[in-house]
Amino acid sequence: MKKLVKYILLIAGIVLADQITKLLVVQHIQENTLIPFMPGVISFTYVKNTGGAWSMFSGQQWLFALVFVVLTGLLLWEYFKKPLPFTTLERWLIAAIYGGGLGNMIDRVRLGYVVDMIHTDFITFPVFNVADCFISCGCIALLIHLIFFNKGFWKEHKK
């Protein structure tokens, strides 16, 4: 249980950073207004996203809640009942992904939508938030690590 505390603290830190940035955006930026931060690179805006990534499944909040509850159950099962051979790095990445998911789930439950605010000026890309960064970067890093660096994970699961 003591090992779990560091992951819970990471999750809490991510949720806190995510919720604070969203609060600042809601309080200081009008909806759909672009505020240049690094001209030509990044602007800030305020968008209400009722869907998932790229606004897919718009208005299907129950679907996101269901996925989050199932993911939570799987993580708890993995940690307490059937530990998988994840490395410490992989556990940190899973905590980062979960923290991002929890940050967005708080918005969905509290507001009925997710507050997005980071707009890329140099490429056409959907507006996103701090939680999305942790989810996306965490997933990419976890997949790269599992595929290229943790050969034991795949050997263990072939049995």
Give a structural overview.
This protein has 159 residues and is mainly α. The protein has one domain. The chain is built from five helices and three strands. The longest helix is centred in the first third of the chain and has 27 residues, at 2-28. Strand 1 (35-38) and strand 2 (42-49) form a beta hairpin. Strands 1-2-3 form a three-stranded antiparallel β-sheet. The two termini are 28 Å apart.
Give a nutshell description of this structure.
The chain is mostly helical and 159 residues long.
* Unreliably modeled segments: none
Largest sheet: 3 strands, antiparallel
Structural class: mainly alpha
* Count of all domains: 1
Q: Approximately how much beta-strand content do the residues carry? A: 5-15%
Q: What's the total number of strands?
A: 3
Dominant shape = globular
**Helicity, in percent?**
55-70%
Order of helices and strands: HEEHHEHH
Radius of gyration (CA) equals 17 Å
Mean pLDDT: 86
Instruction: Please count the helical segments.
Output: 5
Biggest β-sheet: strands ordered side by side in the sheet: 1-2-3
